[in-house]
Write a structure and sequence with these properties.
The chain is mainly beta. It is built from 4 helices and 28 strands. It has helices at 298-301, 306-311, 325-329, 356-373, and strands at 4-9, 14-19, 25-30, 35-40, 45-51, 58-63, 69-74, 79-83, 89-93, 101-106, 111-116, 121-125, 131-135, 142-148, 153-158, 163-167, 177-178, 186-192, 197-202, 207-211, 221-223, 230-237, 240-245, 249-254, 259-266, 272-277, 283-288, 292-297. The chain has a 4-stranded antiparallel β-sheet. It has a 4-stranded antiparallel β-sheet with strand order 2-3-4-5, with no helix packed on it. Strand 4 (35-40) and strand 5 (45-51) form a beta hairpin.
């Protein structure tokens, strides 16, 4: 069974990846400042164009609703507008931020949000050269954004250990909500249960759960299990997440109730930078420091396969390693150091045995629900 498109070589380290909302095109932002555009099919790809809006690293990409325009942000603080068909730069904002820009997202049709390494968030009307307003309540890098369309609210996570919520329609420079210090770097965010709950990835590998109805002051649950930081999150269904960690693995996890379902991609020992789903919810694109774009066919992975279930055994299961201080304290004083838990080797790009046959069928059902609601 084909589980992924051939890895697309990029020639340099990528920072972000973005799918076109209207075509089978994917865009990649590179450390060199370049942006490369590719078209893709089920078994092939073709480079459409490449451009270099800036000589400093390109850190993020967003697109217009109709797919005709792209916006890119870079380490030199620039915000550029590009023609998505040709890659030509059509507008430059050379000093959009005083610090390197770390994230960008399109919220409303003509509204962008950008966040930088010093925690400053700015809102931009794409038709105007200057920012509408700036928020300065964070003091460390902005790590991720999630936009709530119905509420017109932007959720942000930061390396300062806090989460905040902005009303993009309000002229006030203060957030609607701002969490307490979680005493951990918050690196990624994804919605759950129809955007009533949110999973937040952290530096220590804990998945923190926030509940919108309970308020934004503190998380309501913490889910251990990842052995390293959770650098990227992507919802596959209202109750299922793909998690990208600094150990290079992309795992699938059912949340509330929590159940590990398998590993679907492996970037070796390189940390996962970003993950995206395409418009048909068929392809998951991921980028890491291995200078390639990995395309994983997720709808194939979620299909029930009785033959595969019979062939899967204990040797194909990826263990979730829960590193807790209590376990270290229970180690014998006679031992010079605690034994390291080894990850069992399994088939790459294939669901592991953690979910069993029921887990595979459940993933298929959840994917269908997600497609019907997006």
């Amino acid at each position: 069974m084909a589980t992924g498109l051939e890895d697309i070589p990029l020639g340099n380290q990528p920072h972000d990846v973005h799918f076109s909302p209207t075509h089978d095109h994917v865009y990649v932002a590179l450390l060199t400042g370049e942006i490369k555009a590719f078209s893709y099919t089920d078994d092939s790809y073709e480079q459409l164009w490449k451009t270099r809006p800036t000589k400093r690293s390109c850190r993020g990409i967003a697109s217009s609703e109709d797919g005709r325009q792209l916006w890119s942000v870079s380490k030199d603080g620039a915000l550029n507008t590009l023609d998505a068909e040709t890659g030509k730069v059509t507008q430059e904002r050379l000093q959009a931020h005083d610090s390197p820009i770390s994230r960008i997202i399109r919220t409303m049709p003509n509204l962008l949000a950008t966040g930088d390494d010093e925690g400053v968030i700015k809102l931009w009307d794409t038709r105007r050269p200057e920012a509408l307003r700036a928020y300065t309540h964070h003091f460390d890098f902005i790590s991720d954004f999630h936009y709530l369309e119905n509420d017109k609210q932007l959720i942000t996570t930061s390396g300062d250990g806090t989460l905040s919520v902005l009303d993009v329609r309000s002229n006030k420079p203060e957030p609607l909500g701002h969490s307490e210090d979680q005493e951990d770097e918050l690196l990624s965010i994804a919605p759950l249960h129809g955007s009533t709950k949110f999973a937040v990835g952290t530096q220590t590998g804990i998945l923190s759960i926030f509940n919108k109805t309970a308020g934004w002051g503190d998380c309501v649950d913490r889910i251990p299990g990842h052995p390293t930081s959770i650098d990227a999150l992507l919802p596959l269904s209202p109750t299922t997440l793909a998690t990208g960690s600094s150990d290079g693995l992309i795992r699938v996890l059912a949340v509330l109730p929590t159940k590990f379902l398998g590993v679907i991609a492996d970037h070796g020992d390189f940390p996962i930078e970003r993950m995206r789903l395409d418009r048909s919810v068929r392809w998951l694109a991921s980028v890491s420091h291995d200078e390639s774009l990995k395309m994983t066919r997720v709808d194939d992975l979620f299909e029930e396969s009785g033959e595969e279930e019979e062939g899967e055994g204990e040797g194909e299961e990826e263990e979730m390693v829960v590193e807790q201080q209590e376990q270290e304290q229970e180690s014998s004083d006679d031992e010079p150091e605690p034994k390291k838990k080894k990850r069992r080797k399994g088939k790459k790009n294939q669901m592991g045995g953690g979910g069993g046959g029921g887990g595979r069928a459940e993933l298929s059902r959840r994917r269908d629900v997600y497609q019907a609601t997006t």
